[in-house]
Design brief:
- By secondary structure, the protein is of the alpha/beta class.
- The chain is built from 10 helices and 15 strands.
- The protein folds into 2 domains: 145 residues, Galactose-binding domain-like (Jelly Rolls, Sandwich), CATH 2.60.120; 184 residues, SGNH hydrolase (Rossmann fold, 3-Layer(aba) Sandwich), CATH 3.40.50.
- The strands form 3 sheets. Strands 2, 3, 5, 6, 8 and 10 form a 6-stranded antiparallel beta sheet that branches. The protein has a 5-stranded parallel beta sheet with strand order 12-11-13-14-15, with helices on both faces. A 4-stranded antiparallel beta sheet has the order 1-9-4-7, with no helix packed on it.
Length: 339
């Protein structure tokens, strides 16, 4: 029986650019983790990573060696350690299930599961877990069936997302239901995810690192993690300026926090800071910036059902966020393609 190692053609790894130079499923360089110690705990996680391939096998086994590194009361075990498997053309893919570490397991764990599909050539996209380290991944198709490289993403240059636990997907039931994952499937976009729960503080070192990445669009939302509106004001525009200097034509989408109802007075002050960054850029002639007001992300109906704690979105909240962001993101992608 043939095993295909993720990262070795034809099974490709997306969303983790360091994997291609280090062979490690991680997000951050050692240098950046030394410069910003507060995000070191997230640097070796594989959130945002995906494994993609095609096979005509009627079933295949997915195997991985995983270690849960972060968990709290707002996250499920499935979200922290679960791989989510989708089958078929990405924009119309169907959810085939998950495989995750059993509850109350510590240390490195070997997990595996068989997934059934049609005996025709179909794309497989496997979303990696949000809060786990990954040592290895492999695919074992039924014997005498083919494995090929996946279809290319429609938007092959990654979108880069930076922000808080909301950006990371915290409180989603599983990783395939975060707004970033939803947008990737709906618009068929590659992406890289730099969500640092509680620790996205707009540090210039992080901005400088992100500014070196190849990107089609930059999306950022970290106002929850600033101590107060005054701290946000000290970092928000400088962060944008670093990205814009390095990427003068890349579309930038700025978001304020969706959990507006939790503290409307504070949220309004933070929104004003982000709006100021946006309006200053527009006044200077920048036509590649967008601003999405967080209080509009959940719409008007059943807003209470959109978060688990007034801050972190539920699956329902992420779905509403994605629906609001999708047309703006698609407009930004089209504009970038035509520049």
């Amino acid at each position: 029986m043939c095993e295909y190692i993720a990262g070795i053609s034809p099974v490709k790894v997306y969303g983790l650019p360091l994997f291609h130079s280090t062979g490690e499923y991680r997000k951050l360089t050692d240098e950046l983790m030394e410069q910003v110690p507060s995000i070191r705990q997230f640097g070796h996680l594989a959130s945002g990573g995906r494994i993609c391939f095609k096979t005509d096998a009627p079933s295949f086994v997915f195997k991985s060696r995983v270690k849960i590194c972060a968990d709290n009361e707002t996250t499920s075990n499935l979200f922290s350690s679960g791989f989510n498997v989708y089958i078929g053309e990405r924009q119309r893919s169907r959810y085939a299930g998950y495989v995750c570490v059993e509850k109350n397991r510590d240390g490195w764990c070997d997990i595996e599961k068989r997934f059934e599909k049609q005996a025709i050539m179909e794309d497989i996209t496997i979303f990696m877990p949000s809060a786990s380290m990954i040592e290895s991944c492999c695919i074992i198709p039924d014997e005498n069936y083919r494995v090929e490289e996946s279809s290319p993403y429609k938007w092959g240059t990654p979108i880069v997302y930076y922000g808080s636990s909301i950006t990371a997907g915290g409180a989603a039931s599983r990783v395939g239901n975060t707004y970033v994952s939803l947008l990737s499937r709906w618009l068929d976009t590659d992406y890289q995810l730099y969500g640092f729960p509680g620790n996205a503080k707009g540090e210039k070192e992080v901005a400088e690192y992100l500014s070196t990445l190849d990107m089609s669009v930059f999306v950022y939302d970290y106002d929850h993690n600033a101590k107060d509106p005054e701290e946000l004001e000290k970092t928000h525009k400088p962060f944008f300026d670093i990205i814009r200097k390095a990427k003068p034509k890349v579309p930038v989408i700025m978001l304020s926090r969706p959990g507006y109802d939790h503290d409307p007075v504070d949220a309004e002050k933070r929104k004003a800071v982000i709006r100021s960054t946006y309006e200053t850029a527009k006044a200077a002639g920048d036509e590649n910036v967008w601003f999405i007001e967080g209080n509009k992300l959940f719409g008007t109906d059943e807003r209470h059902a959109c978060t688990i704690d007034g801050i972190h979105p539920t699956d329902y909240g992420f779905m509403k966020m994605a629906r609001c962001i999708a047309p703006i993101l698609e407009e930004a992608l089209e504009k970038q393609a035509n520049q």
